[in-house]
Design brief:
A hairpin with a 2-residue loop joins strand 1 and strand 2. About 50% of the residues lie in helices and about 30% in strands. A two-stranded antiparallel ribbon has the order 1-2. The chain contains 2 helices and 2 strands. It is globular, with a radius of gyration of 15 Å. It is of the alpha+beta class.
Length: about 60
């Protein structure tokens, strides 16, 4: 996604984390900044998988 500003990506990741869609799995300090690693919360992973398979089968 080279055409999307990093600040926009960071803001959206923050919103997803605040909403509980993403969870922080690791934090470490790198050159004075905090680097965070995220993963999709289990509840949303299951919801996404079922809705994706339903949508895919209905569109073919």
């Amino acid at each position: 996604m080279p055409d999307i500003p990093k600040t926009s990506v960071y803001r959206h990741v923050g919103l997803l984390a605040d909403a509980g869609v993403l969870e922080v799995t690791d934090e470490q300090r790198v050159h004075g900044a905090v680097e965070r690693h995220y993963r999709l919360c289990q509840a949303y992973a299951l919801r996404t998988t079922s809705s994706t398979s339903t949508a895919a089968s209905g569109s073919h």
